[in-house]
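This is your field. Have a critical look at both lines of this record:
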Amino acid sequence: MSNAEGLVPVALGIEIGGTKLQSAVVAADGRVLLRRSDRVDPAGGAEGIRAVLAAQIAGIIDDAAGKGLVIRAIGIGFGGPVNREQGVVATSFHVGGWSDFPLAAWVAEQVRDSLGAVPVVLENDSNAAALGEALVGAGRGARVVVYSNAGSGIGSGLVIDGQLYRGRASGEMELGHLRLSRDAGILEDSSAGWAIDRAVCGAVAAEPAGALARAATATSAPPSARLLPAALAAGDATAQRILDMAAGHYAHALSHVVHLLNPDVIVLGGGVATIGEPWRGSVERQLDALLMAPLRPSPPVRLATLGEDVVPVGVALAALGDESPAARRGEP
């Protein structure tokens, strides 16, 4: 497929996480035309990640040129707070060396010789994922979409009429940092992937003859949330209790979102959502019980559909649709 004659506008979407770098060439309709992925060592810090990223970008641009695809814009989805208007990373909670780094300008410089002065947009990864799911994923066709991903942390994004909601420069929709009560911890303390891992480890130690302990013995990996799907499928009560506890806290946080925004749909993504229907169903069921009567039934809760492509797709679509001068960090 070629877009050299203007048939298919494409953008390069880049995802920067603590352990994975991913790039994809994405069409304006959300189709992924090319992709590359690398694992990175967070111990190497931001400088080490940038070295891998520079090579990955050069490689996928060559791949695109070989197929006649002309990249018109670049989007970067970063796993942490960013200042989008300045194209600068605020900080990373997982990897050192990113604070105040002008990432958009750095990427623009990497591609200047091969692509020229293309627009480069920097976005938080949860916002990018929210846009992708709203436009071409599980929220497609809905007017108000709330997306939330649970993994090593918990993020969220809000899309209204196809546009990301934006608060002040420091961020918005930080669902994972919502306090469940004034004196309690934040949502990530109970429903992030590591919190569920901790609960599974506790259950394995407390019930050495239980289904989770048997599953842990059968694997060489430490006990984690990855053991839940099989135990849930077998009807294990302990696995169900762990799931419902984490999903209940998640539903509690989402109930505040529904009371404030009353979205058309809620989309769940991230590593925890790979548990699948048991996770989705528990969140939706417990959410409905927490809502005031006029807001029942709850908005439909859906599982994300874009998988590992969600951030590159979302941020590529953001780059293709963003014509603001502040986004054009690749221009002189």
In short: Residues 3 and 50 are 29 Å apart (CA to CA).
